[in-house]
Amino acid sequence: MNPKLLLDQAQIDRAREAASQIAHGVDSYIKNRSTIAVERTVLRLLGIDGVDAEYVPLPNVVVEHLLEQNVLDIGVTKWMINAVVQLKLTPQEVAERVANGSLRLTDLPWIDENQLIAEGEKWARTSLDHIQNVRQKRTALIRRLGEGKAPQLYVIVATGDIYEDAIQGKSAARQGADIVAVIRSTGQSLIDYVPYGATREGFGGTYATQENFRIMRQALDEVGEEVGRYIHLCNYCSGLCMPEIAAMGALERLDMMLNDALYGILFRDINMQRTLIDQSFSRMINSYAGIVINTGEDNYLTTADAVEAAHTVLASQFINEQLALLSGLPPRQMGLGHAFEINPNLENGFLMELAQAQMSRQIFPEAPLKYMPPTKHMTGNIFKGHIQDALFNMVSIITGQGIQLLGMMTEAMHTPHIQDRQLAVENAKYIFNNVRNLSDEITFKQDGLIEKRAQDVLAKAVEMLEEVKEIGLFQTLERGMLADVKRALTGGKGLHGVFVKNAYYFNPLEDALRERLGLKRRGDSS
């Protein structure tokens, strides 16, 4: 039970309807397009891994091989399956031959189209069955070990060395963390390939690689047995390799992924067409794998004022929700983001923070909201910072947030040390335990400051969403209506990787995902 704000359901419905139309407008545009990242993801899901003699990932080698011959518009699958059937090889073996120069895919004659389609669908089923087995293992472990109460305590490790991350992740779990997120190395979102193998040289974080995922998963499974609860693993499914990292996470049993539809556009200047296509496929994978996505609305408040721009956070939550639904992601897997970022010197700022968090909780009742700590207004005064984090924790437990990224009193000073995390966990556990059921005992004053603030933010979000519905999301981004950041339709990084699908385009992984998630096939009006 939570205290309820009096919110106008008709306005919430208007906002959701506008967001739905915005999302469908995006889907209509992207349905006839794919990207090199989507095609590389298909290869990874068909079992291709490894690098060539120059350490270029094999999925990149194969896709570039087809791009050079201008034949990628039918999708990578047909070329790959055609070679697999004729040469009686695995996809991995075909990729290795392409990489060493002994095979040119376009030199092979075509097998029968029906046979090719059937064989592609068979490989897709095998891949998705494997992901389903991985998901079932997670379910069994959680059933046996249990997991932390909501709000689950989320901490980060970011040493740059995966083996040190594993040590620190185990330490965090012993201290009481429920979720360990491995921050990616600075700039990885802007490289158009996934690094290979275990890495020890990241800057500001650790490279997201499949081997690093495996190492961290094993470490958290070990400590989970020790502490008697399942420890969730999170990483970053964003940037130019968004769907590839989603696939890697699905294969290695990650539990959460930062997977926002707009973050890469706004904060990494990645082309909006590229990002919106990639997020669609990545979220299908995350949905099927049972991975909870985390969206990045908290970042808006690093470039815009938390009081004046609060409605843009809510508007983006609605858009992220509707885009996720189009990818088959259920609300229980939507960690919609927001943040405790109002200037602490503002009178009654706490009340406005409470209004925003409670409003989000009521509007998205099934979503395990991802609540972010104060960062923008942390000053280096560790004592004041610890109090700011305590107030943040109070808002979270009162409003029933689901995922709590713990604030660090040394924010803006350095990457958290083990002792910083220890104090953050103690702060949150103390408050959560002492006011666990406070929300059952209180109500909000009708027409009071908190309720009026929430109503005002909702009204502005509705107005904004209905404007976005009229002009479309692409023009909205071009005008800088979100996060005060302007982006161009044909600007940013990665546009070269977007292509229009040929009429004979084939992606059996997407088709199979749509079928298993209960979604219509693209182009199917039934």
Automatic annotation (TrEMBL):
Pfam families: Lys-AminoMut_A (PF09043)
Residue ranges occupied by any D-Lysine 5,6-aminomutase alpha subunit domain in the UniProt entry: 6-511
Gene3D superfamilies linked: D-Lysine 5,6-aminomutase alpha subunit (3.20.20.440)
InterPro entries, alphabetized: Cbl-dep_enz_cat (IPR016176), Lys-AminoMut_A (IPR015130), Lys-AminoMut_asu_sf (IPR037086)
Annotated SUPFAM superfamilies: Cobalamin (vitamin B12)-dependent enzymes
GO molecular function (one): catalytic activity
Protein name listed in UniProt: Lysine 5,6-aminomutase subunit alpha
